[in-house]
Fold this sequence. Notes:
Blueprint lengths: L3 E3 L2 E3 L3 E4 L6 H11 L3 E5 L14 H4 L6 E5 L6 H14 L5 E4 L12 H13 L3 E6 L3 H9 L4 E4 L13 H10 L5 E3 L5 H10 L3 E4 L1 H4 L4 H21 L22
Parallel strand pairs: 3-4, 3-10, 4-5, 6-7, 7-8, 9-10
Antiparallel strand pairs: 1-2
Helix pairs in contact: 1-9, 3-4, 5-6, 7-9
Amino acid sequence: xxxxxxxxxxxxxxxxxxxxxxxxxxxxxxxxxxxxxxxxxxxxxxxxxxxxxxxxxxxxxxxxxxxxxxxxxxxxxxxxxxxxxxxxxxxxxxxxxxxxxxxxxxxxxxxxxxxxxxxxxxxxxxxxxxxxxxxxxxxxxxxxxxxxxxxxxxxxxxxxxxxxxxxxxxxxxxxxxxxxxxxxxxxxxxxxxxxxxxxxxxxxxxxxxxxxxxxxxxxxxxxxxxxxxxxxxxxxxxxxxxxxxxxxxxxxxxxxxxxx
Length: 260
């Protein structure tokens, strides 16, 4: 299968995973390895990647030589806060410029504030960042973010951490059909079937954290998600049979039966 290409760089895995909510960095490492992911997201405000040299660093568990880090702005509620956070991340990661932008609207739903998100995206792109952006499933907003120069559009399937799956496949389909850069479902995936459905719709990839970290067995769930993303992608490329309402079709042809 063709690789996932983001900002000109190819990746074999179409599963991106977060690094938060695990019991320790060792479990994080095991789950990421089982997922087969090559891109890992890290919340700069919550995870030590060198800010505190006296504490364990995620960089030791998941070396940047092996994984592409995607610093994100989880916990930011204004464009200014998000911009400041990603500039700090660039310093901590020696000039790393691939980032995930998210600007939240309120602390209860964690729904994106799209006006602040667009404002931050425009500044960050001009500042030389390659911006992958978390947004709503609004096709108009998705187009505006692409026009602003974002390298990937990441609409939610449902609320962050909800595990509710894809609540509006129709809007996702519109975004997939109209956006030229990669479309990556971000937020709301709860189990393997959700990931498979996203890929069957034609999404380029899926990003998740809680669905794996919140499972009873995170490492086993990571393995399941890897298989689901691969199966969903293959099904999309294969092209499913058309749906036929109230019309049965036997698996074996009826013409030319022996004895007929």
